[in-house]
């Protein structure tokens, strides 16, 4: 009985030792059906796989094919019915045994035998094979569950990295559904509360045309709004109308962040129930998404507050001066949400005096902001009163030393006066970056800086140089956030892209020039910690 040489006991042992290597139910069929077929008197061995409603999902066989009347016979026996006409099919008897496992499709193995078969022995062998089959399916289910859990863990980890990589709320809400589709669901919609009402902010589906048609249907929109509205209010969520939404299943997860509900994720599923992730996993994903969205919202709110505070440290407008054009731009650093220390201004005085000033206070935060305001207003007031830049910087240096502040200040002042058909410029620097002159008829030229930081030495040390602006020439003064913006390779904007950018912007309107120059530097460096202040002065055809 069994394998000719090894016997049934050896065959059964081989099946049990192979259970741990089975990776699919097809492999299982190859393991268990042929040994039963080899038993004396066995005509055919059939395997049936059942759906939860006992509908037969799949057929496997050895020996006589499981087709036509044979399939009808096997299905009837598996359902507990005794069909007539077995002898007409060439069978003396069909022995059947069934297995069921929680959470797994069940199955029936049937052994068709002739008159020579030892039915009790074959029935016992079939029972032993059922035991092997049950254990193999249990292990397959456990391995599949472990693999699914590993996949979900990887998805959660990747989702967290992707969502935490940006603090821009719009980008975060776009990344959330893209992480979910198609790995987790066929569709994902992101709702965020706005004035206590849910607003759809982002949506992705494997079939975007189908999603667009859904969201164009007023009944669908009202149904989703009602569901999400109940969820964000903390009440019970009404069941989804899957027929209206054109999907097999829907899962809605409120977005909880810091004790508040900030929105909801709506997952749309077309896949089988067994392929839908557990609710706990979807809840975990929603929790991470909620925190990322809330962080982005708080970041944007804080950033706007910083920008507003920064604007109060800068002039509301620059003066109108015949023969000169001014434009300025200021970009707040992205990664540190504290008020920075960059400042600029343009002042005019008696006798046609015009002075453009720029500076940078060490550090950020409230103390730096207070010092920034003091430095800007001190220099501007002293220059407006008629003091030279050297004397104004000496007064500011003395004030910094008197206050005992550890913060230092770099500063530059450009005194502008008519000279011939152009503008003569005296540049006075206290450790500040040198200006750049963009000639109307040629390329960019770098001026001369020099001097020492204010607030460090008992007596200030300044550098003085002279420049000349012909009609149409532009002088650009700036803080070091512009030139020292670094790319991923550590190369600074000044060394790699400043000249090229200025050549590209030569001749542009002054407002456009300062905006694009500061933006180009910010884009070159990516996420940055330093602010960028740029003040451009263009000599016109009319004299002062």
General description of the model:
The protein contains 15 helices and 18 strands. With 544 residues, it is of the alpha+beta class. A five-stranded antiparallel beta sheet has the order 9-18-17-14-15. Strands 10-11-12-13-16 form a five-stranded antiparallel beta sheet. The longest helix has 46 residues, at 119-164.
Number of helices: 15
Largest sheet: 5 strands, antiparallel
Structural class: alpha+beta
Coarse shape = elongated
Distance between the termini: 116 Å
Rounded average pLDDT: 84
Helical content, roughly? 40-55%
Number of strands: 18
Give the arrangement of secondary structure elements.
Blueprint: H1 7-18, H2 25-37, E1 42-50, E2 56-63, H3 69-78, E3 93-101, E4 104-113, H4 119-164, H5 169-180, E5 187-194, E6 197-205, H6 208-215, H7 218-232, H8 242-245, E7 249-257, E8 260-269, H9 279-312, E9 324-331, E10 342-348, E11 354-361, H10 366-384, H11 389-403, E12 409-419, E13 422-430, E14 436-438, E15 444-446, E16 463-469, E17 474-478, H12 480-483, H13 493-496, H14 498-505, H15 510-525, E18 532-539
Antiparallel strand pairs: 1-2, 1-4, 3-4, 5-6, 5-8, 7-8, 9-18, 10-11, 11-12, 12-13, 13-16, 14-15, 14-17, 17-18
Helix pairs in contact: 1-4, 2-4, 4-5, 4-9, 5-9, 10-11, 14-15
């Amino acid at each position: 009985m069994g394998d000719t040489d090894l016997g049934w006991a050896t065959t059964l042992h081989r099946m049990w030792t192979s259970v741990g290597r089975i990776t699919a139910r097809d492999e299982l069929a190859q393991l268990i059906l042929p040994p039963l077929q080899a038993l004396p008197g066995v005509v055919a061995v059939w395997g049936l796989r059942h759906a939860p409603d006992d509908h037969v999902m799949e057929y496997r066989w050895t020996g006589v094919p499981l087709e036509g009347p044979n399939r009808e016979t096997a299905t009837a026996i598996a359902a507990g019915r005794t069909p007539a006409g077995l002898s007409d099919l060439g069978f003396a008897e069909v022995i059947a045994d069934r297995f069921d496992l929680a959470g797994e499709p069940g199955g029936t193995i049937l052994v068709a035998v002739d008159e020579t078969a030892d039915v009790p022995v074959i029935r016992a062998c079939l029972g032993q094979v059922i035991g092997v089959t049950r254990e193999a399916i249990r292990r397959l289910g456990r391995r599949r569950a472990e693999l699914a859990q590993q996949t979900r863990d990887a998805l959660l980890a990747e989702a967290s990295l992707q969502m935490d990589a940006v603090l821009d709320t719009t980008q975060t809400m776009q990344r959330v559904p893209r992480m979910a589709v198609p790995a987790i669901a066929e569709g994902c919609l992101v709702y965020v509360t706005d004035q206590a009402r849910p607003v759809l902010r982002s949506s992705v589906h494997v079939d975007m045309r189908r999603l667009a048609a859904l969201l164009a249907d007023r009944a669908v929109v009202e149904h989703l709004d009602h569901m999400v509205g109940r969820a964000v209010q903390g009440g019970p969520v009404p069941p989804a109308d899957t027929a209206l939404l054109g999907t097999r299943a829907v899962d809605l997860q409120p977005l909880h962040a810091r004790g508040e509900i900030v929105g909801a994720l709506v997952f749309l599923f077309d896949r089988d129930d067994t392929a839908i992730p557990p609710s706990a996993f979807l809840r975990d994903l929603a929790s991470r998404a909620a925190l990322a969205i809330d962080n982005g919202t708080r970041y944007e709110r804080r950033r706007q507050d910083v920008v507003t505070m920064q604007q109060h440290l800068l002039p509301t407008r620059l003066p109108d001066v015949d023969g000169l054009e001014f434009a300025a731009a200021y970009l707040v650093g992205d990664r540190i949400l504290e008020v920075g220390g960059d400042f600029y201004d343009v002042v005019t005085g008696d006798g046609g005096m015009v002075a453009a000033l720029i500076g940078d206070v060490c550090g950020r935060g409230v103390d730096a902001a207070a010092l920034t305001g003091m430095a800007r207003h001190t220099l501007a007031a002293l220059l407006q009163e008629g003091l030279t830049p050297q004397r104004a910087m000496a007064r500011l240096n003395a004030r910094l030393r008197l206050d005992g502040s550890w913060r230092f200040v770099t500063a530059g002042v450009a005194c502008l006066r008519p000279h011939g058909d152009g503008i003569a410029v005296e540049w006075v620097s206290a450790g500040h970056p040198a200006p750049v002159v963009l000639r109307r008829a040629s390329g960019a030229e770098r001026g001369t800086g020099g001097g020492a930081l204010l607030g460090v030495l008992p007596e200030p040390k300044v550098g003085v140089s002279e420049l000349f602006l012909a009609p149409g020439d532009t002088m650009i003064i700036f803080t070091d956030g512009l030139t020292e913006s670094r790319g991923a390779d550590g190369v600074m904007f000044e060394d790699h892209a400043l000249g090229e950018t200025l050549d590209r912007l030569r001749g542009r309107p002054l407002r456009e020039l300062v905006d694009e120059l500061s933006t180009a530097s910010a884009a070159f460096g990516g996420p940055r910690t330093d602010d960028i202040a740029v003040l451009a002065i263009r000599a016109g055809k009319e004299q002062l």
